[in-house]
Amino acid sequence: MKTGTDRVKRGMAEMQKGGVIMDVVNAEQARIAEDAGAVAVMALERVPSDIRAAGGVARMADPRIIEEVLNAVSIPVMAKARIGHIVEARVLEAMGVDYIDESEVLTPADEEYHLYKSDFTVPFVCGCRDLGEAARRIGEGASMLRTKGEPGTGNIVEAVRHMRKVNGQVRKVVGMNEDELMTEAKLLGAPFELLLEIKRLGRLPVVNFAAGGVATPADAALMMQLGADGVFVGSGIFKSENPAKFARAIVEATTHYQDYKLIAELSKELGAPMKGIEISSLSPENRMQERGW
Amino acid sequence: MVKVGVLALQGAVREHIRSLEECGAEGIAIKKVEQLREVDGLILPGGESTAMRRLIDKYGFMEALKEFAAEGKPMFGTCAGLILLAKNLVGHKPHIGVMDITVERNSFGRQVDSFEADLAIKDVADNFPAVFIRAPHVVEAGAEVEILSKHNDRIVAAREGQFLGCSFHPELTDRHDITAYFVEMVKEAKAKQFV
């Protein structure tokens, strides 16, 4: 009997496919998410848009909040650790969290190195903007990927950019000859063996969800159509006017992402979505997606 | 060729379809209730049972799934699918509730306790690489239920006539023995309908 194997860690993410993972800050929100059909919740102290507004250093959530959420729902519970913060990650693992997000939404603890995630029994999800970043994270042991997008903005443009970029680069690698892959590995900053594996599989070896800026059911469906395996919704749900209704609508739009009549129906009278931010109005140092190496 | 559906509301759908094709059956992702009429058997995949249940209710699948079972068509549940099939769930109300077993959810612990183990499965394989992810197990099985496999004294695979269920995820491996076993069940059930 073996725990913490790649198959077990990646398999857990496979089971989340076609589903929606929602950010929550307390037990009540976690129950709303579970009732709406979320496949997992991300326990946080503040959703990304509030982290953005608060400024300062954003850290792992208070363990009390995580414990409260763990006790409130039967679906998997994820939590965020700072990039490179070995101890925050170990603390979350010790608490029995089901998945850790080594996340650029929090202030990085290490500006050079990410966690060596293969060392952990708990699986990790990491953000990526291109195939090089995706492959480096998988190389370190990430079992699941997500686009970085631009968290807390309610603006889907960056998530679209990252999903198209990664999938375009995967298609390119799949179409290349073996003797071209080493140079491609050098250009991408990606481990060579991983590019070989991608070519052999015809896809990434782990699932890749959309994240960062999903604010409406149509946004979620758009990301599915671009090839996302599922969707993370951060501020989009509990910063909207009617979170329960919004949560249900996003779940349904993710399942039936090509049923446009249905998406029209469930987008009616949802109330106001979260107020968005135009990306160009964010100065580079305020762009969370720039964090990670 | 038999047609086998995979309930495609959420979860590991693609893997099951690939496995069905390897076994010489046609795999169809079922997203709409009407599609159930096209298939001779149905796989309920791994995923999150609470999320699937909400979508089952929302799109009126519940009655159709019960009817599908009542017509004697084979159904195979893996992990979350096993939970959907069970007549009784520990601490929760049952879902489709057609297989005479009592199932406990997440009974091996949280994700850090998820594991791989080689299993002997009666009539299927002597050493099947089983992947258990936040897995449920069968706490109690009715008199008509045949126990196919146990892990540490817990029932992890069982069959009751047209129903097959397991705690683990055959779809995450390259072994298609158990899918092939189910495809045989579908073929037999289909042959009987034409007698």
From TrEMBL, chain A:
Q: Which residues bind D-glyceraldehyde 3-phosphate?
A: 164
Q: Which reaction does it catalyse?
A: aldehydo-D-ribose 5-phosphate + D-glyceraldehyde 3-phosphate + L-glutamine = pyridoxal 5'-phosphate + L-glutamate + phosphate + 3 H2O + H(+)
| Pathway the protein contributes to | Cofactor biosynthesis; pyridoxal 5'-phosphate biosynthesis
Q: What is the E.C. number? A: 4.3.3.6
Keyword check for ATP-binding, yes or no: no
Instruction: Name the PROSITE patterns on file.
Output: PDXS_SNZ_1, PDXS_SNZ_2
An example of a GO molecular function for this protein is: pyridoxal 5'-phosphate synthase (glutamine hydrolysing) activity
Q: Ranges for the PdxS/SNZ N-terminal domain? A: 6-211
Keywords in alphabetical order, please: Lyase, Pyridoxal phosphate, Schiff base
Cited InterPro entries: Aldolase_TIM, PdxS/SNZ, PdxS/SNZ_N, RibuloseP-bd_barrel
Annotated binding of D-ribose 5-phosphate, by residue: 23, 152, 213, 234-235
What GO biological process terms are annotated to this protein in UniProt?
amino acid metabolic process; pyridoxal phosphate biosynthetic process; pyridoxine biosynthetic process
Lipid biosynthesis recorded as keyword: no
Active site per the UniProt annotation: 80 (schiff-base intermediate with d-ribose 5-phosphate)
Looking at the record's lineage, which domain of life comes first? Answer: Bacteria
Record note on quaternary structure? Homohexamer and homododecamer. In the presence of PdxT, forms a dodecamer of heterodimers.
**So what family is this one in?**
Belongs to the PdxS/SNZ family.
Q: What does this protein do?
A: Catalyzes the formation of pyridoxal 5'-phosphate from ribose 5-phosphate (RBP), glyceraldehyde 3-phosphate (G3P) and ammonia. The ammonia is provided by the PdxT subunit. Can also use ribulose 5-phosphate and dihydroxyacetone phosphate as substrates, resulting from enzyme-catalyzed isomerization of RBP and G3P, respectively.
Instruction: List the protein's name.
Output: Pyridoxal 5'-phosphate synthase subunit PdxS
Lineage start: Bacteria, Bacillati, Bacillota, Bacilli, Bacillales
Q: Which gene encodes it?
A: pdxS
From TrEMBL, chain B:
One GO CC term, this protein: glutaminase complex
Catalytic residues of the enzyme: 79 (nucleophile), 169 (charge relay system), 171 (charge relay system)
Pathway assignment reads: Cofactor biosynthesis; pyridoxal 5'-phosphate biosynthesis
- Which is an annotated Pfam family here? SNO
Q: How does it assemble?
A: In the presence of PdxS, forms a dodecamer of heterodimers. Only shows activity in the heterodimer.
Its annotated function is as follows: Catalyzes the hydrolysis of glutamine to glutamate and ammonia as part of the biosynthesis of pyridoxal 5'-phosphate. The resulting ammonia molecule is channeled to the active site of PdxS.
The protein's name in its UniProt record: Pyridoxal 5'-phosphate synthase subunit PdxT
